[in-house]
Give the backbone structure.
Amino acid sequence: MITLGDKQFEKYLSATDVQHAVNGVAVRIGDDFKDKNPVFLVVLNGAFFFAADLIKRFTYPCELSFIKVASYEGLHSSGDISTVMGAEPSLKGRHVIVVEDIVDSGNTIEAIIEILNQEQVASYAIASLFYKPEAYLKSFPLDYVGMEIEDRFIVGYGLDYNGLGRNLKDIYILKAKQMTNLVLFGPPGAGKGTQAALIKDRYELVHISTGDVFRYNMKNNTELGQAAKAYMDRGDLVPDSLTIDMLRAEVEKNPQAKGFIFDGFPRTEAQAAALDELLESMNSSVSGCVALEVDTEILVERLLERGKTSGRADDQDESKIRNRFDEYNEKTAVLKEYYRNQDKFHAVDGVGSIDEITARLTAVIDQL
């Protein structure tokens, strides 16, 4: 285990594994380009280790050139590609081998291919030490790949995290953060609020209620709150992207959290996918979706009883109560299927004493 900046990494591939991959690429390029006097176009900064070892194994006439592009910021690609340093000398009419350290989305390679076409090269081939097929978004082929790897963030052998780790001989992978992240469902009157408070304390989780988050941002007139209010004032729905931005802000307030309980979010499949992306950016994921299930007739009786003291008008009208259940069932049905498809949906009997229900919930959570 090593620490680079604020992140921990664990060993993923040995230096020997890396050299075997380099050798495989070198042999194939040697067979294909031995009589073409190619130009090795090295993508800086990450590919310089790979390029140095690759060219040492290419025993035929060749030339070397460099190009620098930018896209990564921290752990994630910005998606915006800019050329920082162009290739020198002219590549017109030459056979070019683009040398990359890693190909994930393919955005950088696409930008370089566009430059090569403008330069009117005779031919080009793409050689990458690592390739993430799960992340690849383009259709053009990669001609030489040293090794296919999973879609995880790696450092070492030229690859870096905020400038750190390039000098490592082995390859290290970002250590997964052990978090318990729960999506909590429950119809009105199921006792979700009571159980959320107990679970939060038991597992030292942060409870994030979408309603509370909206109210906080609106009350404090934050930038996100102002944006949400503008949509509401026009009678429009607040877009998912803005809601997820609010949640992200809440999550980022708690960098040392052991996990989160998401209450009131997601409400649609698109929101569930956005939540997955948010947690993935933290190298984490939804641990499970837990739903308190109570028979509708029991809940109607429970809410009508509560309405005698709560003062809430919607707890005193049976038709309104049943409409709330219909809305809940309609919204959660697709989400139950979404999390079932990920083997993350867990139904818990919500009838019984508070302690009995808590025991059922913790039995599920302890196995997540």
Observations:
- The chain is about 40% helix and 25% strand.
- The longest helix spans residues 318-340.
